[in-house]
Amino acid sequence: MYKLFLQPLLFRFDAEKAHYFTFDLVKFFFKIPFFPTIFKAIYQYENPALEKTVFGLKFKNPVGLAAGLDKNAVLVDELSAMGFGFVEIGTLTPKPQPGNDKPRLFRLKADEALINRMGFNNDGVKEAAARLKKRNSNVLIGGNIGKNKVTPNEEAVNDYMICFNELFDVVDYFVVNVSSPNTPNLRALQEKEPLKDLLQTLQKDNESRPKQKPILLKIAPDLTESQLDDIIEIVQETKIAGVIATNTTISREGLQSSEELVKEMGGLSGKPVTKRSTEVIRYLAQKSGKAFPIIGVGGIHSPEDAEEKLNAGADLVQVYTGFIYEGPGLVSRINRYLAKK
């Protein structure tokens, strides 16, 4: 139904406008009596075989929504009804910011991919925290945190700490985003020493609290094996909970779309990143001896794609671009497929 009717309609419009239109549409329909119940009956699939405990949290299924779709936590309850085992909000920054100039989101239909250079556009962490306090669903929530564009890297730790404190009581786990290519110099924080300092600061605060929250690190697919070795060392040294592999790529290798689209600046997601994301997951899992959990994300458009990530060493998976191309039925298809394994 989605791919036959709704997707072709939405894809006729500018990608970012279609995104907000879809959000408004979902909000509208979920206010209609009985619609949420019918929607859940169609898209939610529950099976005890899918339940999994990872970094101390019990997930009803291993399929989550990656950060970026619901940056401001405005659709958490509705997304829960779509069958996700967990929903990651953000990336959030201390102060609201508009992000980069539009247009900044592009569909590469021939590649079933997206290029985005959104630039951490969000309403600010306080606004998102206030919304999460009012939510009705009990789906597990991840808080993806970053720094404001105007904050120099030398002061970045303060931004991450502000977000950590604001969200601590309303999310179930945290994701430190230093791997987006769309905030100037952000990826420099992936270098060994600044990254270690940032994670140690967060973890020290975390350990001082009566109940700790898992902290994960989201990494880029463009890291070298030497850099991945550093990531393994840093995760083990700082004792954070795990890694999310991977964010979007700056590579444009092997794309079939027009040169005009391919040359757009930003992070590429979707099918073109499938292979590299899986390679990073496999490398981290094998080189570390599965020393920490991994959430696999990048180019999951089918149940088989999800299975490939899990077989490579991921404990959980997340979808984003595949969800946009395939629709909400993707979550149910993945879960039904995995339940039979």
UniProtKB/TrEMBL annotation:
Principal location listed in the UniProt entry? membrane
The membrane topology noted for this protein in its Swiss-Prot or TrEMBL record is: Peripheral membrane protein
Give residues annotated as binding substrate: K71, N116, R117, M118, G119, F120, N177, N182, N247, T248
Q: Where does the record place the catalytic residues?
A: S180
How does this protein assemble? Monomer.
Instruction: Name the family the entry cites.
Output: Belongs to the dihydroorotate dehydrogenase family. Type 2 subfamily.
Name of the protein in its database record: Dihydroorotate dehydrogenase (quinone)
